[in-house]
Amino acid sequence: MKKILLIPALLFAMSIGTADASIQAAVAAMRTDAQAIQQMTITWPDIQAAAQSYGALAPYAAQQWAGQGPIIVTPLGGQELCHNTHWDQVTSGLVTGGLNITGDAAVEAYALQTIAIDFQQQYANLMIAEVQAHASNVQQLTQTEAQTKATLNNLMNLLTVTGQQIQAAMGPGTTLRQMPFTNWQAGIGDVPNLAEAQYTAGPNDGAPIGWYTQPTDNALARLIDRCPTGSGSLPMIPLAASVQNAANVSVQDEPDVQQAIAPFEQGSSYVLPSGGFASGLLRLPNYPVRMQIVGILAADMPAIAGYMQPVTSALQAFNTTVQSTMSEVNQNVQ
After folding, report:
1. Where are the domains of the chain?
2. Maximal CA-CA distance, the chain
3. How open is the CA angle 112-293-184, to the nearest 5 degrees?
4. CA distances from 256 to 37, 110, 192 (A)
5. pTM of the model
6. CA distance 51 to 62
7. Which residues of 102-137 are buried (b: 16+ CB within 10 A; e: fewer)?
């Protein structure tokens, strides 16, 4: 008789042990998600602000910052083409930075949706495990879970609308302009701090790119170092590490997200189409396209920021609920 009674007792003890392990696993996952959500509450508005600030990029679309460099007449004939050191030192980095903003925003959106949903799922797992453990705090956890679900639904609805707006903006009839070439990739990266971009002109002793118009009647003519020089600095706002961390957590929560995020993890890049040849048979960059892409970023990035803006306040509200939930969990979970 004692042996028969021992079996239910062992099964009950095993169920309690299983529930305890499930509780620990759910709480650990919730803590990881909560930390990622807390960080995204900081980085999302930072990305939004960086996109908004790109409205100030308009002056960089001018010839001086993105166009062709100066053409210098040499003493013995011919014309040599100089580098545009404004582009080399500052403006080209601003273009990469704009692609970084796009990549960061896309990855954060994927991560936010995935991690927020996982937090809710882990909370449900926690309550199931608490019921199995015959805990006395299930009613309190249920009330807190309902509050979390309400703010999550609001956030998810806004993220869906934001995604639809951006998708529509990229389609036919959009008010946004498409990039004038196709060889580009947005990726995770730090973003430029436009307010601190600097350029200092140097002496006119720089080497040219080559002959713009090669002399035809003077065999002694040589390229000479008479081009303008200069140095620039473009301080970066360090967002890449935080965005990558959010990506890692989201893939841990839902491995299928990796397929969507993977292209962005290669970083941002772009290759400008050729602009043809000068009369001196010098292969030229496509200067009009360079100026055009800077102008596009200046016009379109603030619009993208506008699409992101409603999510910012909803994310902050959701994060407040998440952190409050974790406080309740830490106090009440057995």
Report:
1. 2-67+87-194+236-332
2. 117
3. 55
4. 19, 11, 31
5. 0.84
6. 20
7. bbbbbbbbbbbbbbbbbbbbbbebbbebbeebebeb
CA 303 to chain centre: 16
Q: How many CB atoms lie within 10 A of CB 218?
A: 12
Q: What pLDDT, on a 0 to 100 scale, did the predictor assign at position 81?
A: 95
Q: Does position 8 have pLDDT exceeding 80, yes or no? A: no
b/e sequence 27-45, b meaning 16+ C-beta within 10 Å: bebbebbbbbbebbbebbb
Return phi, psi of residue 232, to 5°.
-135, 165
d(CA 102, CA 334): 43
Amino acid at 258: Q
Q: How far is residue 184's CA from residue 259's CA, in Å, rounded to a whole number?
A: 19
What is the phi/psi pair of residue 220, to 5°? Answer: -85, -10
Q: Which residues have a Cβ under 8 Å from the Cβ of 303 and sit 6 or more positions away?
A: 169, 175, 176
pLDDT reading at 245 higher than 60:
yes
Q: How far is CA 286 from CA 64, 99, 211, in A?
A: 15, 19, 17
